[in-house]
Amino acid sequence: MAGYEVTVNNPAWGKGTEVEIPGLGLVKNGETVHVDAEQAEAFKAYHTSAVALYYEDTPEAEGELAGYANEPGRTVLEAFKHTPYVTVATTGQKNKKDKPEDKNENEDKSEGGDE
Question: How many domains does the chain have?
């Protein structure tokens, strides 16, 4: 899993003003903080909520509480998607082949060697 670079930059707040982001902690306005994969998972868990489940398929129990389930929280990227003064950039690799490996495969084909 990739990490994130989170920058808070609200011109209405003074530079260096501490802003609390629930699940991430304090971030200074105008600065960028690194959120590693472990912190990103903790952020998502912090924002997980319990959702009530009700019976709907049994006429005699319709509308009665059946139990609860966890609704996963949003990722750091999703959470700030519509917040104009917070920018989030992903860091790290995402299960893609490295370009040098692809290049090496092409080089082997272009040499025309028999195997």
Answer: 1
